[in-house]
Amino acid sequence: MNSKFKDIRITDNFYQSSSFFPMPLTLIGTLNENGSLTSYGAYSLIFPYYIAGKGFYAMVLECRNTSNTARGLLRHGKCTINFLPYSKKNFSQHVDCGFPGDTPEEKMKNFRFTPVDGLSQEEHPNEKYPKILDEALQVFECSWVKELDNAQDDPVLEDYDGYKYHNFNGITSKFGAHFILKIDHILIKEKYYNSIINGATRSNYCPLPTNWGYRDSKFFWCSDFKKPDPIAIPNREVDISSVRYAAERLNTDVQFTDAALKMLVKVPRPFLKLVLKGCADWAIEHNVKVIDEKEMKEINDKRSKEKKEKK
Ligand SMILES: Cc1cc2nc3c(=O)[nH]c(=O)nc-3n(C[C@H](O)[C@H](O)[C@H](O)COP(=O)(O)O)c2cc1C
Fold first, then answer.
1. Whole-model pTM?
2. Residue 48 pLDDT more than 90?
């Protein structure tokens, strides 16, 4: 093996005991037992899970199964994932919210941030939803998809030793739980909303910390967000003949002119069939036999309109 590397032992919590791993830093809000209070736990093992083609979008959370957060999700099925900007003070509040054993009431006594109602609460005034944090740059409001992996009956217990563990949702091991969380809303502050909708710049890129870790059983470390650098998409046009080849294999009577195919040379190969099929479906729907530049423009306009409406 290349002697520049050492082969480190892989142990429990390998993502920080055996390596450095970039992770988000979030405060997850869940309701206490009677639903009267939102308490916040610090969580990093929270990642996108269903990102397309599933009818809904979801995150996955890996979580200690006796935490307030796990209990809040088992009982009420709802949470808010709050992303805050980096500052030493903010990081220290995350570390405080990461101390195991405090009840929701104890945790919230000296809490520095400001819980406020989110959009889910506004939409369902007769139900109880965990609050979002006013200081967050963005918040995901989520609902636990408890039916996945048949986890809907998982109870809140003091100890899960000997429990029949699930594979990927609900109580998954003696100390662990996984929660697949449907994203109900993504709420984002205006500056970063504009960054997504109108274009990112070096100054409106959302400054979220990702480089943190617990080290030597002593310190929580986190580095500040630095200015981002933009790198342009590689200009890798495929040859028009490979676009034509893909178009001819489509199993449709719809024809594409060379000029139309030329407009697709920048589509990455894995998506080419899907894009061509979308064009052919559009043509059939509009009774078009041959797709030329004009039709491609119409299809593109329709696509960007749909994208804008979705946002
Ligand atoms: C920055 C940070 C990130 C953390 N990420 C996780 C995590 O992803 N999963 C987990 O189970 N515990 C994580 N912890 C530990 C939990 O925060 C800890 O178990 C805490 O008691 C949870 O709070 P809760 O009981 O209010 O849910 C993290 C702690 C810190 C400080």
1. 0.86
2. yes
